[in-house]
Specification:
Layout (H helix, E strand, L loop, with lengths): L2 E5 L2 E4 L4 E8 L8 E6 L6 E6 L6 E3 L7 E6 L4 E6 L8 E8 L11 E4 L3 E6 L1
């Protein structure tokens, strides 16, 4: 079993940066792909970025590529999302998720465990 807790959200101006963190419990963390999703009011949950279990490969939605960086520290059971050059359209609740697989694809149904979410608000 894996439990996930996100932190680091907040209010930031356009062009600013935030770093989100996800702390995981469970000994299977290092064997699971991890991802960040986000959900804005009235919209469906959207894939932001994923990282395979080893941390060796990362994947990003086109909307955040070049601005966001996902990383993980398997020794500490954490995954992070560094968000730079933030835009108002990045405003959403951000969720950390653990995949049932080693890889971390963009399909929400592949993820068995979810954090409670952390709010990111980017002002114009």
């Amino acid at each position: 079993q894996v439990q996930l807790v996100e932190s680091g959200g907040g209010l930031v101006q356009t062009g600013g940066s935030l770093r989100l963190s996800c702390a995981a419990s469970g000994r299977t963390f290092s064997s699971k792909g991890m991802a960040w999703f986000r959900q804005a009011p009235g919209k469906e949950r959207e894939f932001v970025g994923g990282i395979i279990a080893s941390g060796g490969s990362t994947y990003y939605a086109d909307s955040v590529k070049g601005r966001f960086t996902i990383s993980r520290d398997n020794a500490k059971n954490t995954v992070s999302l560094q968000m730079n050059s933030l835009k108002p359209e990045d405003t959403a609740v951000y969720y950390c998720a653990a995949s049932r697989y080693y890889v971390a694809g963009s399909t929400a149904r592949d993820y068995d465990y979810w954090g409670q979410g952390t709010q990111v608000t980017v002002s114009s």
